Amino acid sequence: MKRRLVMCMLVLLLVTSGLALFPGDKVYACSCVESDAQERLKTYTAVFTGEVVKKGLSQQSQHDGLLREYTFDVDIGWKGVNMKKMKVIGSDGGSDSCGVQFEKNQSYLIFASLDERDNRLHTNLCSGNVPVEQAGDDLKLLGAGKVVSKEGFGETNDGGGRTGPFYLILYGGVILLAALAVVWVWRRKKRI
Questions:
Q1: Helix spans in 123-163 (H)
Q2: Is there a contact between 83 and 49 (Cβ–Cβ < 8 Å)?
Q3: C-beta separation of 92 from 107 below 8 A
Q4: pLDDT for 100-133, tens place per residue?
Q5: I need a surface site. Which of 17, 25, 137, 159 has the fewest CB within 10 A?
Protein backbone atom coordinates (compact mmCIF):
# COMPACT_ATOMS: atom_id res chain seq x y z
CA MET A 1 0.00 0.00 0.00
CA LYS A 2 2.78 2.39 0.93
CA ARG A 3 4.65 1.47 -2.23
CA ARG A 4 1.56 2.14 -4.36
CA LEU A 5 1.11 5.58 -2.77
CA VAL A 6 4.76 6.44 -3.43
CA MET A 7 4.40 5.34 -7.10
CA CYS A 8 1.26 7.47 -7.53
CA MET A 9 3.03 10.46 -6.03
CA LEU A 10 6.00 9.95 -8.37
CA VAL A 11 3.76 9.73 -11.44
CA LEU A 12 1.89 12.86 -10.34
CA LEU A 13 5.19 14.68 -9.79
CA LEU A 14 6.46 13.65 -13.24
CA VAL A 15 3.26 14.74 -14.97
CA THR A 16 3.12 18.14 -13.26
CA SER A 17 6.83 18.81 -13.82
CA GLY A 18 6.40 17.83 -17.47
CA LEU A 19 3.58 20.34 -17.83
CA ALA A 20 5.72 23.01 -16.22
CA LEU A 21 8.70 22.30 -18.49
CA PHE A 22 6.63 22.01 -21.71
CA PRO A 23 3.65 24.33 -21.25
CA GLY A 24 2.41 24.23 -24.88
CA ASP A 25 0.84 27.15 -26.74
CA LYS A 26 -0.06 30.36 -24.94
CA VAL A 27 -3.77 31.08 -24.68
CA TYR A 28 -5.11 34.60 -24.45
CA ALA A 29 -8.57 35.70 -23.40
CA CYS A 30 -10.64 37.62 -25.91
CA SER A 31 -10.17 41.37 -25.70
CA CYS A 32 -12.04 43.59 -28.18
CA VAL A 33 -11.45 47.20 -29.18
CA GLU A 34 -14.65 49.24 -29.02
CA SER A 35 -15.80 50.90 -32.25
CA ASP A 36 -19.08 52.16 -33.66
CA ALA A 37 -20.89 50.85 -36.73
CA GLN A 38 -19.50 53.58 -39.03
CA GLU A 39 -15.91 52.71 -38.07
CA ARG A 40 -16.63 48.99 -38.58
CA LEU A 41 -18.18 49.77 -41.98
CA LYS A 42 -14.83 51.28 -43.05
CA THR A 43 -12.82 48.38 -41.58
CA TYR A 44 -14.68 45.24 -42.62
CA THR A 45 -14.93 43.71 -46.10
CA ALA A 46 -18.64 42.83 -45.91
CA VAL A 47 -21.45 44.42 -43.90
CA PHE A 48 -25.02 43.16 -44.19
CA THR A 49 -28.14 41.97 -42.40
CA GLY A 50 -29.37 38.48 -43.08
CA GLU A 51 -31.06 35.38 -41.71
CA VAL A 52 -29.06 32.23 -40.95
CA VAL A 53 -30.40 29.57 -43.34
CA LYS A 54 -27.67 26.99 -42.82
CA LYS A 55 -25.39 26.28 -39.87
CA GLY A 56 -22.45 24.03 -40.78
CA LEU A 57 -20.61 21.61 -38.54
CA SER A 58 -17.86 22.81 -36.25
CA GLN A 59 -14.42 21.93 -37.65
CA GLN A 60 -10.91 22.22 -36.25
CA SER A 61 -8.62 24.63 -38.11
CA GLN A 62 -4.84 24.42 -38.03
CA HIS A 63 -4.43 28.13 -37.24
CA ASP A 64 -7.74 29.40 -35.90
CA GLY A 65 -9.15 26.72 -33.61
CA LEU A 66 -12.77 25.67 -34.06
CA LEU A 67 -14.58 27.21 -37.03
CA ARG A 68 -18.16 26.92 -38.32
CA GLU A 69 -19.59 28.00 -41.68
CA TYR A 70 -22.87 29.93 -41.68
CA THR A 71 -24.98 30.68 -44.76
CA PHE A 72 -26.99 33.90 -44.58
CA ASP A 73 -29.95 34.91 -46.74
CA VAL A 74 -29.03 38.60 -47.12
CA ASP A 75 -31.72 41.28 -46.71
CA ILE A 76 -29.75 44.54 -46.80
CA GLY A 77 -26.14 45.13 -47.79
CA TRP A 78 -23.90 48.10 -47.07
CA LYS A 79 -20.59 46.76 -48.31
CA GLY A 80 -19.09 43.68 -50.00
CA VAL A 81 -22.37 41.93 -50.76
CA ASN A 82 -22.16 40.17 -54.12
CA MET A 83 -24.69 37.37 -53.64
CA LYS A 84 -28.13 36.84 -52.10
CA LYS A 85 -26.73 34.00 -49.99
CA MET A 86 -23.42 34.82 -48.30
CA LYS A 87 -21.22 32.31 -46.48
CA VAL A 88 -19.32 33.47 -43.43
CA ILE A 89 -16.88 31.51 -41.27
CA GLY A 90 -17.29 32.13 -37.55
CA SER A 91 -14.88 31.32 -34.74
CA ASP A 92 -16.78 28.61 -32.89
CA GLY A 93 -15.19 28.72 -29.44
CA GLY A 94 -16.64 30.38 -26.38
CA SER A 95 -16.66 34.11 -25.75
CA ASP A 96 -13.31 33.83 -23.92
CA SER A 97 -11.73 32.84 -27.28
CA CYS A 98 -13.74 35.41 -29.32
CA GLY A 99 -16.15 32.76 -30.58
CA VAL A 100 -19.59 33.51 -32.02
CA GLN A 101 -22.75 31.45 -32.21
CA PHE A 102 -25.45 32.30 -34.73
CA GLU A 103 -28.79 30.52 -34.51
CA LYS A 104 -30.59 29.16 -37.56
CA ASN A 105 -33.67 31.16 -38.66
CA GLN A 106 -32.45 34.24 -36.75
CA SER A 107 -31.43 37.53 -38.41
CA TYR A 108 -28.18 39.34 -37.61
CA LEU A 109 -26.20 42.44 -38.52
CA ILE A 110 -22.90 40.97 -39.72
CA PHE A 111 -19.44 42.50 -40.06
CA ALA A 112 -16.97 40.14 -41.78
CA SER A 113 -13.41 40.37 -43.12
CA LEU A 114 -11.84 38.56 -46.05
CA ASP A 115 -9.17 36.13 -44.82
CA GLU A 116 -6.33 36.04 -47.38
CA ARG A 117 -5.35 32.48 -46.35
CA ASP A 118 -8.57 30.89 -47.61
CA ASN A 119 -10.20 33.78 -49.54
CA ARG A 120 -13.37 33.52 -47.42
CA LEU A 121 -15.27 35.87 -45.15
CA HIS A 122 -14.56 35.42 -41.43
CA THR A 123 -16.09 36.96 -38.32
CA ASN A 124 -15.76 36.66 -34.54
CA LEU A 125 -17.03 38.14 -31.30
CA CYS A 126 -15.01 41.35 -31.72
CA SER A 127 -16.52 42.09 -35.14
CA GLY A 128 -19.62 43.64 -33.57
CA ASN A 129 -22.24 41.24 -34.93
CA VAL A 130 -25.62 41.56 -33.22
CA PRO A 131 -29.13 40.19 -33.67
CA VAL A 132 -31.14 42.57 -35.88
CA GLU A 133 -33.61 43.31 -33.07
CA GLN A 134 -30.68 44.65 -30.99
CA ALA A 135 -29.03 46.56 -33.87
CA GLY A 136 -31.20 49.71 -33.83
CA ASP A 137 -28.41 52.20 -33.04
CA ASP A 138 -25.95 50.49 -35.40
CA LEU A 139 -28.50 50.48 -38.24
CA LYS A 140 -29.12 54.22 -37.73
CA LEU A 141 -25.37 54.90 -37.92
CA LEU A 142 -24.99 52.76 -41.07
CA GLY A 143 -27.80 54.59 -42.86
CA ALA A 144 -29.78 53.18 -45.76
CA GLY A 145 -28.27 50.08 -47.29
CA LYS A 146 -29.13 48.36 -50.54
CA VAL A 147 -32.02 45.89 -50.43
CA VAL A 148 -30.77 42.57 -51.79
CA SER A 149 -33.02 40.41 -53.94
CA LYS A 150 -32.53 37.21 -55.96
CA GLU A 151 -33.09 39.19 -59.15
CA GLY A 152 -30.20 41.54 -58.42
CA PHE A 153 -27.74 38.87 -57.30
CA GLY A 154 -26.94 35.23 -57.78
CA GLU A 155 -28.19 32.62 -55.34
CA THR A 156 -24.98 31.49 -53.60
CA ASN A 157 -21.45 32.52 -52.92
CA ASP A 158 -18.24 30.75 -51.94
CA GLY A 159 -17.55 33.25 -49.16
CA GLY A 160 -16.16 36.20 -51.07
CA GLY A 161 -13.93 34.41 -53.55
CA ARG A 162 -13.94 34.58 -57.32
CA THR A 163 -17.27 34.31 -59.09
CA GLY A 164 -18.61 32.85 -62.37
CA PRO A 165 -17.60 35.71 -64.74
CA PHE A 166 -13.98 35.43 -63.57
CA TYR A 167 -13.84 31.75 -64.45
CA LEU A 168 -15.66 32.35 -67.75
CA ILE A 169 -13.00 34.88 -68.77
CA LEU A 170 -10.20 32.61 -67.52
CA TYR A 171 -11.45 29.53 -69.41
CA GLY A 172 -12.18 31.61 -72.50
CA GLY A 173 -8.61 32.93 -72.46
CA VAL A 174 -7.16 29.42 -72.11
CA ILE A 175 -9.28 28.17 -75.03
CA LEU A 176 -8.24 31.15 -77.16
CA LEU A 177 -4.55 30.55 -76.41
CA ALA A 178 -4.92 26.85 -77.23
CA ALA A 179 -6.63 27.70 -80.54
CA LEU A 180 -3.86 30.17 -81.43
CA ALA A 181 -1.21 27.56 -80.63
CA VAL A 182 -2.94 25.00 -82.89
CA VAL A 183 -3.15 27.52 -85.76
CA TRP A 184 0.50 28.49 -85.31
CA VAL A 185 1.66 24.84 -85.35
CA TRP A 186 -0.53 24.09 -88.39
CA ARG A 187 0.85 27.10 -90.36
CA ARG A 188 4.38 26.21 -89.41
CA LYS A 189 3.95 22.62 -90.67
CA LYS A 190 2.37 23.93 -93.87
CA ARG A 191 5.48 26.04 -94.65
CA ILE A 192 7.79 23.04 -94.31
A1: 136-142
A2: no
A3: no
A4: 889 999 999 999 999 888 889 999 988 989 999 9
A5: 25
